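It would be a great kindness if you could assist me with a short task in structural biology. The full record is reproduced below for your convenience:
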Amino acid sequence: NDMQEMKKIMNELAVKYSITYLDFSTDSIISNNYKYFQNADHMNNHGKRIFTKKLLKKIKDLNIRLSQIND
C-alpha cells in the first residue's frame, strides 16, 4: 500500500544519507486518535503539544545513545 511504500522510501533515504528516520505513524497514543487532530492531516494544539513532547523525548534518547557510542 501507499504507506508501506512511503516508509520504504524514507528508510532507504535515511540509510543513503546516514540520518535517523523517526516514524510516529503507528504511535499508539497519537496515530488515529482523532481528538488530537483538527482535520485528517493537521494536529490541533493539544495534539501538537503531545507530539512535541514525544519528539523531544525521542531526540533526547537518541542523543544519549549517540553520545555513548562516540565516547
